[in-house]
């Protein structure tokens, strides 16, 4: 389904992503972990063609993604929706309009200028918001919502594109533990119920272990771990984070587990 072969991104002398190679056979929920600067964001940005790779091949369902141009590239970008740490909503615009912006690439300039949305899209937006438990927020300005609600609006906007893949770059890094859990639960449900692939950069081990089927660990641009949460032992984590024996998992932990008493 997805194959990544020696994908590399070089900035000057620095290999931000260095020969990344892995394959995914079926839609999975994948967590990418690693310390700051490991190359996690750069990898996601290459994947949805926000930035060009320096070399390598990335294929999805037979499509040669890194070679796509023009309309084919835009179609791919619509197939793999991106979610960001800072939500990237239009703060003063109402929630439902923010969600409808997920369909922008399908609409004419005139329709966009006058904010004209087909009735069927409006229904779909409300349905998606309802699915995420925030339909009653639809008329409010985005800026009036809590962080967790705003991130769910961003997920709703992504779902309007009906994407095959959701790429999430630190989707819960700005959220408190309760909201973080609500957002991760939403991503997991979307993966399980819709069969969409989710690839999320996560800065905490416990979240990756708890929500993902597979964890990829990056260090200095290289993939140094690729396995199941069970295989992600403290030793493996220490290697990914490049830490010595004093490495403590708690330092990479949100308090979600502590909150619920779930053993790590
Ligand atoms: N536009 C750029 N120009 C030059 N160097 C860059 C650029 N973007 C990223 N880098 C470098 O590439 C490396 C990987 O950065 P990246 O943002 O992918 O890391 P990350 O794993 O997402 O880190 P974080 O956890 O802090 O978000 C870093 O050394 C960074 O300084
Ligand atoms: Mg990053």
Automatic annotation (TrEMBL):
Gene3D superfamilies given in the database record: P-loop containing nucleotide triphosphate hydrolases (3.40.50.300)
Tell me which PANTHER family the record gives: AMINO ACID IMPORT ATP-BINDING PROTEIN, PHOSPHONATES IMPORT ATP-BINDING PROTEIN PHNC
Which residue ranges does the record assign to the ABC transporter domain?
A: 2-245
The UniProt entry, under SMART domains, shows:
AAA (SM00382)
Among InterPro entries, the record links this protein to: AAA+_ATPase, ABC_transporter-like_ATP-bd, ABC_transporter-like_CS, ABC_transpr_PhnC, MetN_ABC_transporter-like, P-loop_NTPase
What UniProt keywords are attached to this protein's entry? ATP-binding, Cell inner membrane, Cell membrane, Membrane, Nucleotide-binding, Translocase, Transport
Q: Quick check: keyword Translocase in the entry?
A: yes
This one is known as Phosphonate ABC transporter ATP-binding protein
GO CC, any one term: membrane
